[in-house]
Structure formats: structure tokens, C-alpha cells
Amino acid sequence: MKCAVWGSPIEHSLSPVLHRAAYGALGLRDWTYERREVGTDGFEAALRGLDGTWRGLSLTMPLKEVALAAAREASEQARRTDAANTLVRHGRQGWMAHNTDVQGMVESLRESGLDHLDSMLVVGSGATARSALAAAQHLGARRVVFMVRARPRPETVQHAHAAGLEVAVTPMGTWPAADVIVSTVPPASLGGLTQLDDRPATVLDVVYGSGDTPLQHAARERGWTVVDGTELLLHQAAEQVRLMTGQPAPLEEMRRALAEALAAHR
Prior knowledge:
CATH class of the largest domain: Alpha Beta
Helix content: 40-55%
Low-confidence stretches: none
Number of helices: 11
Strand order of the largest sheet: 2-1-3-5-6-4
CATH superfamily of the largest domain: Leucine Dehydrogenase, chain A, domain 1
Largest sheet: 6 strands, mixed
CATH topology of the largest domain: Rossmann fold
Mean pLDDT: 94
CATH architecture of the largest domain: 3-Layer(aba) Sandwich
């Protein structure tokens, strides 16, 4: 059986490390997992080119919306967020779309000690931001603030209202009080706009692979709780493994393989 992660850029992805570790621990010796550079323009043709040996795909930016559109069916989370980071072969006729980013965010925040929150500040308003909204709702939030350069995407605001969340907007670099900050944008988008105050909060930056982002660095300097993007990666991948293989994910083996890969990159 074949699986892979697709996106652009993709060379930094640690998904192969996690999935291969899971296959080894589960004894799935005939399963493979690769990475492939695929953009939105080439996605449909690439998907059509997959034969019956393909079981699942992990999707990263910028494919989360086109993947949902290509699926024959979609899970409730994928429909609620209008985004899919996972496609699983569904019979002979097509693909089932899932969004495991939501579970990944919830589990990584819970591991940091955040079981319940009242408010969330979301940097950005794209597909990953909508996953953050679903996670916020799951953790009991009442209010979400979007930090964007102009206006948040209307469909994302609509999702926030549908989730029963109060919505506010703040300019880039203005940091109102919130229980948790989730950044879904490239670190360069924030530039020098990371002048945080001393009010304690939790920060989850979904970007990983190049050490601390400027936002993570600023949060650590103030003694805030920092959740690395690799924790989100680990937990969303564990759910992908379960969906693709039908077996519970070996989380500790995956965590150990991830730690070894990160240490090797330092």
C-alpha cells in the first residue's frame, strides 16, 4: 500500500518520518510513504494518476481546499472547516476527505495543560485558521480575534459565527489579551511585529522546521507557554495513521522518531 504527503513547498516535511515509524511499529512492511511536490494547478491530474495501490494522502499548503473539492465524501470536521489535510481511499470510486489538524491542535494544546479556554487569537484567516476555530470551539472558547493585514476571509468569519464564537479583528502586530495565540502564517508575515506584553498566554505556531519562529522566541522571553508546531504535526499524523491503516497509531514510537529527526537537523 502507498501513501504520501503532497504540498508546495514539501522538502521540509517531517510527515514521512512519522508515518514510516508508525508502519514499522505496526509491522506494515509492505506500506510506503513518500513526499511529492504538488501545487494547486497540478493537483487534480496528480490525483487522477494514482492507481489502486494508493491508500492515503496527507495534504499541506496550498492543497487543503482543493483536496476537499476533489473528494467524493467528507468527514464532519472537513465539512465544518471547508478544508482537508487528509484523503483516504474510499472504495473503488474515490476519496474520503478528513481534517486531522483539528484533533492535532486540540491534543497538542491539552498536552501543554490547556484543557479549556475562553478566547483565542488567530493570526491569519485561511484553511488552517478554520481548523483553529474548530479547536477553539472544542475547548470551550467564547471569543476569537483574527489578526490580519486587511480583512479576514469572509468564509472564515462565517465559520466562526456558525461555531457560536464572538468575532473581533485586530491589525497585525496588535496583541489583545487571549488565552491562546495560534499563528497560521509564515514567520516572515509577522516580521518585527512580535512585541508581546507580560500577560501570560499559550502560543502555538503551526510552522516548524527552522528552530524558534520570531513569535515563539518572543513568547519564551516573556515566560509564556510555547507549543511547537511539531506537536501539532505529531498528533494530526497519528490520526492520519489510524484513518489510513485502520489501526491505532503507535504514538510513542512516532514521538521518538520525530525527536530523533529534529535532533539530527540541529
